[in-house]
Amino acid sequence: MASLGASQVVRMLVNGTPAERPVQARTTLADFLRDDLDLTGTHIGCGHGVCGACTVLLDGETVRSCLLLAVQADGHEITTVEGLAGEDGALHVAQRAFSEEHGLQCGFCTPGLLMTTAELLGDDVRLSRPEIRERISGHLCRCTGYQNIVNAVESAIALHREGAVGG
Q: How far, in Å, CA of 62 to CA of 120, rounded?
């Protein structure tokens, strides 16, 4: 059998938990999260960084995990959709807003959209609907037409500004 190349041990904090595993140099962060850590909420849609389904937070900023190698995330903090909810299981404001506003249908794009929403809540944001559309424009959804997604992001911003728990 042909060698797959040398492996390297990566260490990172994933959803608040230390993770340390050997990985092949070509392993994407998305594959590492899904295959090695069993965090399957990070979806792989296009595999080219176009659809946004694989979006996670790296040190609080969104990245396309299908384009980032696991070795590039070594020493960093990663948050996936599984890490959004509180330790007590309380939904993050983004999750709550997407549920209440019906901002999902099949759910395939939802984890990436939730991660982008969570990132923008880190700012003291006041976004108009066109600005929200611009901020989520890197995500492709084939089900909703985006109206309820925009409503959900708008609701998450309002909940966050009101000081709702979980975000």
A: 9
Average pLDDT over residues 10-16: 98
Q: Can you give the pTM of this predicted structure?
A: 0.92
Q: Which residue type occupies 5?
A: G
The average pLDDT across 9-28 equals 97
Structure tokens of 46?
A: 């296009």
Question: DSSP letter at 35?
Answer: I
E-state strands within 25-117: 55-58, 61-64, 77-79
Torsion of CA 86, 84, 93, 111, to 10 degrees: -150
CB–CB of 114/136 below 8 Å? no
10 Å Cβ neighbour count for 12?
A: 21
Token readout for 14 is 């994933």
Residue 92 amino acid letter: H
Phi, psi for 64 (deg, rounded to 5):
-90, 110
Distance of alpha carbon 11 from alpha carbon 27, whole angstroms: 14
Structure tokens belonging to residue 45? 């849609």
Nearest to 141 by CA among 69, 61, 76, 55: 55
- % helix, strand, coil for the chain, step of 5: 35, 15, 50
